[in-house]
Amino acid sequence: MGGVAALAALVVGGGLWVRSKGIPQPGRTDSQSPYRTYTATGQVMNVKALGANGCTVQVKLHQWVSVSDGFTLAEMPQRGQLYTIGANAEQCMALQVALASLGDPEDLESPRHIYYKAAQLRSGEWHMAENPSAPVGCGGL
Questions:
Q1: Alpha carbon of 138 to those of 10, 51, 91, 114, 135: distances in Å?
Q2: Domains in the chain, start-ordered, CATH in brackets?
């Protein structure tokens, strides 16, 4: 019986944690909260350093793996579409590591694909939602 009570406490506690996770953080406005995301593989077309603020990455979408609610059919990520995605300093470093593992980072002619998750803010801006990585098991990528 003690195990059932502990499980019930865990479930109730987990439910409270999930609900509280959605409460906006102080100083954040609704326009700074992501409202839809997608996970995909894409070819890195350009990276622009922004100093201590991170970087922006231009990605040509290869294939989306998952999408969140909130996309209309016309807004679904499309193969070949270019996205400019902001990234913080840690995500930019992860991008450098991923690209280095794929070959010469100075060789912009060879395709350099990444696996990434992007989140769109209500302002319309796209940002990395997680650290990007080199794709695994993507065949001819």
A1: 38, 32, 22, 10, 6
A2: 35-136 (2.40.50.140)
